[in-house]
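thought: fold this chain, then report.
action: predict
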Amino acid sequence: MSGGQLSRMSRGSRSVDRAKGVLEVDWALFGELSRALALKVARDWDPDLVVGIATAGVIPGATVAAILDVEFHSMLISRRYHAETVRDTPAVFGQVPAAVRNSRVLVVDETCDSGATMRLAVSAMVNGGAAEVRTAVGFRTGNYQPTYFGMATDSAIVLPWDREILVDGELVLNPLYQGLLEP
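observation:
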């Protein structure tokens, strides 16, 4: 993923194009989008398992897998993990889940902009022996076309699990969003 979208601030750019707006996703909207995404997949395809891209793709991936009643795994692909600065391109950390071999795999992430993370994930699944790989995201935010998506938007996205963090035992607005959101 590349910069510009708020939902990726912890992974990539720390800038937001205010002209495009901010979409603050609450838990109810997240749940409905996940349900809609799972239904889109189920009406078109029957995956054997879902692989959620850690970290932000794990929650939607696990939710979609639960709705589809299929096995769930995660895989870490990041621009920041084990890095002093944000990388230009994402990297795979860890191994592809063994369960992908000879399976129909749905790769899920929270957003998709440039497609760099998704392309890397798909390649990893194919190299891991997947029979077929398709992609799904809650939010398509750029030019890359995942197989399935819940919503297309140019707005920066604030996900419900990322809006607040614990500081000294209290939930507070994530400092990344200071000045963009009301507490």
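thought: worth noting. The longest strand covers residues 104-112.
final: tokens above.
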